[in-house]
Amino acid sequence: MERRHLQRPLLTLLSAGAMLALGACAQTGTMASQDVSTLSPLQLVGLTVQSADLTRTLGQVDDLILAPDNRVEQVIVGTGSPMYPTPHRVVVNTADLRYAPNRQAVILVGMTPTEFAALPMTGSNDRMLSMGPTAPMPGGPMTRTGAEPTNWTGATVRR
To answer: Per the record, which residues fall in region Disordered (predicted)?
Structure first.
């Protein structure tokens, strides 16, 4: 008879422990993320941009706008079909984005997908190229037209 009385508190204690463990698992279900401006440009270009609820893919990171200290200030996101028949590129501040390493994606946290869709389109040739000399090199026929790819020189230097 005394053995039955010992089993009951033990069973209650084990049940309470299991419930606490399940609660701890539920709390860790939030997605780990980090600031986009601290990442290297090579890590960001090509990643998908998803809505905060992770149900929609809004586009992908096409290009970046860097600060003089090589930190990412703004992200140029390219969206296309089915929303737009032609490529549509918009600029998003890094404060509105978080990087989710477990999804290998950038999450749009500072605005809704509707607000994202309402952002003004950037020009198709708006590419940043400011890290080199603006005059053509002697003997070289290259002139700057604004359509050249972004010069990433020095963007991957460790901080």
So the answer is: 136-159
